[in-house]
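Model it.
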Amino acid sequence: MQIIDFDRAAQKQQFEAHYQPIIDLHNGVIVAIEARVRWNGGMGQHLITAGDVLRAASAVQAHWIIDRAVLERTVAAFGRLRDEIASVLPVAVNVSAETCMADDSAAQLENFLARSGIRPERLRLEFPQGAFLAASSTVIPLVQRLAARGYGIAVDHVDTADFKAVHLEEIPVHTIKLHERLVEQAPGDAASDERIRGICLAAQKRGWRVGAEGVVRLEQLKFLRQAGCHEGQGALISRPQVLGNLMFLLRKGRCW
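Modeled.
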């Protein structure tokens, strides 16, 4: 693993957003885009994930710094997409548990969104399931306020159909996304397969859409579709793309 100087990377604005198409698993049409954070250390260095960056970070507000960087780049991307493509798809942006659980960074998130100029219905905010486990006095009211303003709400890393246990019934959820380890093990692992089916059934009863990321094999895609999953993303469909490549796909109206 490369060693990252987090403070230097933040100062030089080396955090980038790449964009991954999300498709409807039943017809293959691109229905949304997810912004994925990457670090670009310069010529000849590889792009790495947010998790790698955060392992190297020493700044107290490292999570919010990265979340804000991706949001800033997504705001700029909306401008280019609006100018060049007739129909702008909703963009999903991850919000870390650390950002939404801390009063200061949660307030900064709300202030940024209020000043961004993005129409709320164009943005899907993805919060990790773990942020709701303790019924945080910060997280649930924050998500309720954002939903009331029109932002789409998604819950990521879902691994249980007992939504009461993780307080998801207290917030207006639009989409839940299966935990990557469940997707990775399916199909073929009986416990994971059964859990996926149970989560999809429980979500459908509440009118929630179910998504899956990390789809890398055709048999995964087929199983997820049969299990009741609505959306999918992953290397089988498309890896995260720089904005120019993404716009090429969208101009072509490409579906998988």
